[in-house]
Write a structure and sequence with these properties.
Chain A has 198 residues and is mainly beta. Chain A has helices at residues 2-15, 30-33, and strands spanning 50-59, 62-66, 72-76, 82-84, 88-89, 99-106, 112-119, 121-132, 135-140, 143-148, 155-158, 175-182, 189-196. Chain B has 136 residues and is mainly beta. Chain B has 2 helices and 8 strands. Chain B is globular, with a radius of gyration of 13 Å. The chains are: A mainly beta (198), B mainly beta (136). At the A-B interface, α2, β1, β6, β8 and β12 of A face β4 and α2 of B.
């Protein structure tokens, strides 16, 4: 717990103008960062330390985000913020129009000092409608979605086996869970991991 | 209820961007990605007919909308309390699937959390985790 609290304090310090380096934060893995975070949110209630929405403006290291419920949010990116966009990445890869989920610490002015930002991340349950060269056509809630295989990144988990880069065992009609990154301009996705049912 | 061990994933609901835009408020009509909520495979007869955890050898209790469960990520011990807002996951489609963190393992999908809830106990970029679920 002390490590997590220290990290959160450092994030707030960074957001308020302090100098923070990643090495000073220890592990940047979100799994570790939130391992001991106290559960203070009532079950069923909204989490004030979580934001969902689309980026309308980027000003310095501040993201101005419009929530899907139309609520406006400011998200501060610090040196300690971990950013995911298909894979762990850097702030310069974040763009206006991207969707995101973010978790962090609320500052006194309401800005969220982000600990983690997941950009364009989707986790879809779908059926494989067709298989093409380096892509899958998914049937997701009656909508057809094109999912691209990204060489060197996309992986498949076949019914709990370790992830492998060979997606050739995926078959039409199989149910899959696809974790990936959405393209706002085309509504297609890039595949990070496909979880395939037996 | 004794704790159930299995797998936890996450799903989006409510108003949302991208492919999640069609998700809606879930079976209970109240689901929102930013709330501490979850989907449960036995919220009704109709729900059970879709998810069929019994086909994986699981007997999961009938729980209605708003019922509280507490999910522990077996990879790091962190825990989150959530209320039922939807029917799911579709347990029968992944019968026998097993997820481990070292020696901590869970088999079969027993609960889906909203992004807010899942990200409180793990990273969204990891789509699946072994977990235990209880009511207290």
């Amino acid at each position: 717990m002390p490590q997590t609290l220290d990290r959160r304090r450092l994030l707030a310090t960074a957001a308020l103008g302090g100098v923070v380096g990643a090495t000073g934060l220890g592990s940047l893995a979100p799994e570790a960062a939130f391992a001991a975070e106290p559960a203070t949110v009532e079950p069923g209630a909204p989490d004030p330390n979580f934001v969902e929405g689309r980026i309308g403006k980027i000003s310095g290291h501040l993201l101005l985000v419009t929530g899907s419920d139309t609520v406006l949010h400011s998200i501060r990116i610090t040196d300690g913020t971990s950013i995911w966009k298909l894979h762990p990445t850097t702030f310069d890869q974040v763009a206006i129009g991207d969707g995101l989920y973010a978790r962090g610490v609320r500052l006194p002015d309401g800005t969220l000092a982000a600990d983690s930002v997941w950009v364009n991340i989707v986790n879809l349950h779908a059926h494989i409608a067709a298989v093409g060269r380096n892509l899958l056509h998914l049937d997701h809630k009656g909508q057809r979605i094109v999912a691209h295989v990204v060489p060197g990144r996309s992986a498949a988990v076949y019914n709990g086996t370790p992830a492998i880069s060979d997606l050739s065992l995926l078959r039409v009609g199989r149910h899959v869970q696809v974790l990936g990154a959405w393209h706002p301009d085309t509504n297609e996705i890039d595949i990070a991991t496909v979880y395939a049912a037996a | 209820m004794a704790a159930i061990r299995g797998e936890v994933s996450w799903f989006c609901c409510g108003t949302a961007w991208g492919p999640c835009g069609t998700a809606g408020g879930g079976a209970c009509g109240t689901c929102k990605s930013g709330n501490y909520q979850h989907a449960w495979p036995n919220t009704s007869d109709a729900c059970w007919a879709i998810t069929h955890p019994d086909s994986c050898g699981l007997s999961m209790s009938r729980r209605g909308c708003g019922f509280r469960h507490y999910t522990t990520n077996l990879c790091n011990g962190s825990r989150v309390g959530t209320t039922i807002a939807d029917c799911g996951p579709q347990t029968d489609l992944f019968c026998g699937e097993r997820t481990c963190c070292g020696s901590a393992c869970g088999s079969n999908r027993i609960i889906d959390l909203t992004p807010a809830a899942f990200s409180a106990i793990g990273s969204l970029s990891v789509g699946l985790r072994p977990c235990s679920v209880d009511t207290v």
